[in-house]
Amino acid sequence: MKIKAIYPGTFDPVTNGHRDIVKRAAKLFEHVTVAVAANPSKIPVFTLEKRVELANVVLTDINNITVRGFDGLLAEFAKQCGAQVIVRGLRAMSDFEYEFQMAGMNRLLTPDIETIFLTPATEYTYISSSLVREIAALGGPVDDFVSPIVCAALEKKMC
Ligand code: COA
Hints:
Elements: E1 4-9, H1 16-28, E2 31-37, H2 48-58, E3 65-70, H3 74-80, E4 85-89, H4 93-109, E5 114-118, H5 129-137, H6 148-158
This protein binds coenzyme A.
């Protein structure tokens, strides 16, 4: 069975941890849409266009994926993309409660789409976009956590 998946997030900015999850998902599914949410409630530092652009560059070597921005309900966008599966990354137990609630809500909104969880490699367990932004803003090194193009974009943004 050929299954299409969608991997949603804010990706503000995309990190090596996100990339790790995308690579794992791309091995499991025929196609993965990396769905960059506008997510105005998080007041992202990078514009939606910039977040899509960065993700496109960082994930360019993975063939069976497409990066798309979206505004609105994930459940609706997943249907538009023809996805049967929503992929989310689980880094620690602390992620679980929020993810469990979101998976339940998405199931109520679109019962035909399943949420599955993938865990990143151990070295990415502690990475989050907001910590990366904070370290960059305080002049710390982030090159172990994000790709060079994201490092450059953070430097430009923060100075
Ligand atoms: N590696 C590194 N970091 C990771 C990660 C991984 N594998 N997986 C998650 N994270 C981090 C993110 O960087 C982010 O960090 P931050 O909060 O410090 O910025 C955090 O974990 C979780 O963010 P993310 O994965 O981007 O998801 P999100 O919680 O911001 O986004 C959406 C959730 C976009 C999927 C959700 O808000 C959504 O679906 N929005 C659309 C509207 C909608 O349908 N709402 C109803 C939902 S039921």
